[in-house]
Amino acid sequence: MKRILLFSIISLVIMEGVVWIIFGDIKDEPSSPQQPVSEEVSRAPETGTSLEVPVQAEEKDYPWITTEVKNDRIERTIHMGVRQWVWEPSILYAKEGELVRFVIHNADVRHPLVIPDLGIEADVPPEGAVVEFVATRKGVFDFLCGTYCGVGHAEMQGRIVIE
User: Fold this and answer.
1) Which candidate, 102, 104, 156, places its Cα nearest to that of 128?
2) Across-strand partners of 106?
3) Per-state percent for the chain, helix, strand, coil, to nearest 5
4) Please, what sign has the CA dihedral across residues 124, 92, 159, 149?
5) DSSP state of 59
6) What is the pTM of this model?
């Protein structure tokens, strides 16, 4: 029994080391806050017109953000990455009344997205997910991972600012 326990502990330590080596080269610096969309949004036909909003200089950087007007409502799509113990970006922006759509690209294990103050709980399996909600009120709302995902789970937090 002692050998099994010792083997299990050693295996976990080795797995943590491998994860650290694999993800150690990735920047863990917080992303710079994105620029909010201009206040002037032209009225679009009901069929919808895409208003591309480039936020980062390089295509590989997150977040990829687009806005689109459909049926007189702005739909904001934000691509974000998630992996053990990081939401990328960790600070997101939207405007009250918008339909917010997170396209979440998951790099490893299950990371349910939970925004307690907005009543949002959405599963994000390893293959990723799309999470939509209407930003019904202004404020700063914290989000977190809803399932224990390893030693850095407690620090895996982010924030959405609804203006």
Assistant:
1) 104
2) 82
3) 15, 40, 45
4) positive
5) T
6) 0.62
